[in-house]
């Protein structure tokens, strides 16, 4: 708790002094501390529910093309839930796919009025 307060203060100070790089690094450190995951190249994907280092390669393949970041994965499948399920169904359970899609708001078009 004290560490998060300290990092938030560091972010405010860095922002006030217009030290963008330092503010972004402190923000990243705060996020890693809160989530409990240290940053590496695949860390954002590993924060998705049900995604582990073992099945990460199937998420990164994105069906036909390689995906480099979570926003790119989201834009690839936004409002295309069936395509998302099709790409991952051989490697994930349907409940896991639902949890990932809910996390990234892919299933918005499936809501019936």
The helix-strand sequence is HHHHHHH
User: What's the average pLDDT?
Assistant: 78
- Low-pLDDT regions: 108-113
User: What portion of residues is helical?
Assistant: 55-70%
Distance between the termini: 43 Å
Q: Main sheet, how many strands, which sense, barrel?
A: none
Shape: elongated
Counted by DSSP, the helix tally is: 7
Beta fraction: under 5%
Number of domains: 2
E-strand count: 0
What is the alpha-carbon Rg in Å? 17 Å
Structural class category: mainly alpha
Structure description:
Mean pLDDT is 78; it is low at 108-113. The protein has helices at 2-16, 20-35, 43-46, 56-61, 70-77, 81-88, 94-104. The protein has seven helices and no strands. With 113 residues, it is mostly helical. The protein has two domains: 2-35; 43-110, no CATH class.
Topology of this structure?
Layout: H1 2-16, H2 20-35, H3 43-46, H4 56-61, H5 70-77, H6 81-88, H7 94-104
Helix pairs in contact: 1-2, 6-7
């Amino acid at each position: 708790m004290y560490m998060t307060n300290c990092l938030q203060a560091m972010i405010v100070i860095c922002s006030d002094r217009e030290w963008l790089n330092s503010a972004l690094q402190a923000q990243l450190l705060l996020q890693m501390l809160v989530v409990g995951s240290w940053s590496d190249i695949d860390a954002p994907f590993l924060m998705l529910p049900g995604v582990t280092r073992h099945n990460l390669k199937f998420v990164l393949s994105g069906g036909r093309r390689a995906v480099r970041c979570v926003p790119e994965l989201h834009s690839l499948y936004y409002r295309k839930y069936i395509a998302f399920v099709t790409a991952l169904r051989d490697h994930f359970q349907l409940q896991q796919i639902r949890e990932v899609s809910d996390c990234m708001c892919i299933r918005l078009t499936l809501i019936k009025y």
